[in-house]
């Protein structure tokens, strides 16, 4: 007997290439999941238009439609719960989540960040900052989310070497290639029950 596919909520604010990678992995049969809600805070995000065009369920919760950021996120949390989301993935989400939101999805909320955490944490410019710092290797990190931004237990990381002639765009493009593999893999490990959080560490259990 095969287990039911994992019910996934995906949070997007931007282009949505990670959402596309998750959707592609599901379609190829590599990720036993189904997207039950694409949630966004940005009605104009390309990711929202793309998700609608795919026929995915989409909910948009702009800050301006609510009295506060906390209320907008509370509405998003309710929508995710009503959709039955078992795991929520921040795939290019650009707002700090409230402690209430994080608590509602404790242990089942993931983020992807374009650096090797804890380097270049807490910024929307991690790729530019890595280049400006002169690092020779950067990469991307998938981690469980805790109230402190970009500080939760690390699930998977991939390293990306910095080339002599890299620009922020060329480096980001190579980081994205890694992200698009890493995030579906992390979700698949979670879906298979193979991730165990032990303090700061995430232990990956044998299949
Ligand atoms: C990714 O680089 C991710 O690491 C960061 O936001 C970006 C989202 O890209 N958190 P996309 O919207 O998935 O194309």
Walk me through the structure.
This protein is α/β, with parallel strands linked by helices. The protein has one domain: Formyl transferase, N-terminal domain (Rossmann fold). The chain has six helices and nine strands. It has helices spanning 17-27, 46-53, 69-82, 99-104, 126-133, 168-191, and strands at 6-12, 33-40, 58-60, 87-90, 109-113, 137-144, 154-161, 195-198, 201-204. The protein has a seven-stranded mixed sheet with strand order 3-2-1-4-5-6-7, with helices on both faces. A two-stranded antiparallel ribbon has the order 8-9. α1 crosses α6. It is globular and about 50 Å long. The chain starts with 5 loop residues before the first strand and ends with a strand. The structure holds 5-O-phosphono-beta-D-ribofuranosylamine.
Give the arrangement of secondary structure elements.
Blueprint: E1 6-12, H1 17-27, E2 33-40, H2 46-53, E3 58-60, H3 69-82, E4 87-90, H4 99-104, E5 109-113, H5 126-133, E6 137-144, E7 154-161, H6 168-191, E8 195-198, E9 201-204
Parallel strand pairs: 1-2, 1-4, 2-3, 4-5
Antiparallel strand pairs: 5-6, 6-7, 8-9
The structure holds 5-O-phosphono-beta-D-ribofuranosylamine.
Tell me briefly what this model is.
The protein has 207 residues and is of the alpha/beta class.
Descriptive key words:
single chain, 207 residues, alpha/beta, Rossmann fold, 6 helices, globular, binds 5-O-phosphono-beta-D-ribofuranosylamine
Work out the helix count: 6
Distance N terminus to C terminus? Answer: 16 Å
Task: Write down the overall mean pLDDT.
Answer: 97
Portion in helices: 25-40%
